[in-house]
Every structure is written in C-alpha cells, then in structure tokens.
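Handoff note, outgoing to incoming analyst
You'll be picking up this chain. Sequence as last confirmed:
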Amino acid sequence: MKTDPTPHALVIQNAVQLGVFEGVPGAVNLRQLRGGPTAFLRFKTWQHLLINTPDHRFTLAMIDLGYIKTGWLRHIPVHGDSFETTALGPLLPCQVADDLRDSATSSFRATSLQIEISHKNPTRHFLRVNSERVQLALELNGDSISPLAVCLPLGKKDVMYSQKMPLVASGQITIDGISNEISPELGHALIDVHQAYYPHKTNWRWATASWRDAKHGLCAFNLTHNQAREPRRYNECALWLGDRLYRLPLAEFNIGEDPLATWHIVSEDRSIELRFEPEGMRSDDTRIGPLKSWYLQPWGRFHGCIKTPCGQSITIDAFGLCEDHRARW
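Most recent structure output, in case you need it:
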C-alpha cells in the first residue's frame, strides 16, 4: 500500500488535500476550511497520549469540542489499582495547537489538573502534567521515526486530519510524592494529534499499542475503523518497526456485548490477527441537550500476529488500549 506525496498545506485555495502522507504537511491549516461565527462549534481537536514505563502506564488527553472542553489523566500501575483525574466544562482554558511547528504549545488548565505540551516540532515534545497525586516531566522524542499523517474524507463532505506515532519517553514521574527517573531505554509513548470537521453522527473503533523488541527497538501499531469514504484507500492502519513505517490493510473489530470480554481485530486478508484482553476500562457518556459523546476505552494486552506488506510476521504481546466511540456533535 503506497503513501501519497506530502502537500505543502492541508488546505490549498480552499481545497482540502486528502491522502495518507509520507510526512507531516507543511502547514496543518484544516481549521480555515470553513468560516462563519459558528464554525468553531463544528471543529473538533484533541491530543491524546498513551505512556508506557516498566512500572506505570498513563493515558491523558486534552480535548476541545467547541462547546465543551475536557482533560483527563489516568494512572494505570502495573501492580495496584488505577485512578483518574478529570475536568470538564465549557469555559476551561484549553488550547490545542493546530500546527506543531515553531515551538507551539498545547495546554489544558483546571483546578485539579494541568497539562502542557511544548512542541519543538511535530516529532519532539516536552510534557508537563500536574495533579494532586501525579506529576510528569517527560521528553517525548520521535526524531528518527516516521509519523503517520492522514487527511481522510468523512461522510458526504466532512474531513479529518490525524498524526500518530510512537515516541521515546524519558524524564521524571512522581506519584504520591515518590519520584522515579525514566531512561530513554525504558520509556515509550504513543501520540494522537487530531482535528476534524465531523459528520453530525460519528463513530469509530481504535486499537493501539507500543513495545520494544531486541531486533527492531521501539515498535507500535495503530488500527482504526471509522466513517472514511473508500476506507480501504483512506485509513489510519499502520505498523512501526524501529524507524520503518508500514501501511496495513483496513482492520475489522469484533466486540461482544461485554466490552471487558475479549476483542478480536482482523483484516480481510488475515495479515492482522489480534485478540485484545481488557484489564480495565475508562468510559464516558457526556450529554448536552441533543449532543452526546459516548465511548469506552479499555486497556489491556494484545496477543497475535501482524504481517508486513513484504510478508514478515511480527508476533504481538503488548500492552495497549482500544476504543469504541459514538457521538452526535
């Protein structure tokens, strides 16, 4: 599966540039695609991180939906119970950078939780998090890794942009006053940078994980199934092995009635055959009048196999997360 040449901007003369790109577009300017006083209510943007260390995992996000802002930090220890700090409100200070170049900054600030990500460039970031029980100060470095950057057509006339990639994570983690230094050899993360004009009714399913192995170093996968037109052509399914990025075929998600039971994720050609065993879950059901955002985000372990386009078989045994999301914006 081939990638598309990277455009110098996402929107050129009011025309959006669709594709699965070889790199990050020169200007990430999707916001300007639509004007008018209510355009900000349709524009959705967020940044999400999954952080992995030997003893602690974290998921965190800052989200601006136009009419509501939210942020969260969940601590998932390897041993012990997880806990979460969340803040939600229409007036909370939340600034998610559109373009990650030129030392941009993304931030979310509430009384209980402050998140700040300083973006040196699209592949290098510095994360600071402060909450009552958890403080993080981490450098996230992906300078030698190819990002997955996509601009996908949704529904009849809508569009989304996403940049995803694994990152080396190093720095300091403090939990309940006890600090630990994380070396670059032990910490890793996955970043999801996202912005979209979504259809009024939206749904997607998502799976992602990162790990290290002796042969390739830092590895990761990202699998999605959403409302993209021509989904076999336009999707976000990819595998990273060290500094190599491979496109993958469209993934199908088989989920039973119990979201904490085993999930099965496969591709039509069986080059993706994974099962996901949830170990816990965060969930959300936000409703504001006719608007709603409902989702489940279980975390746990993936087992199975992914084959690269050249036929190499990669055995998967890795911690990660899945998501089942349905919304009416």
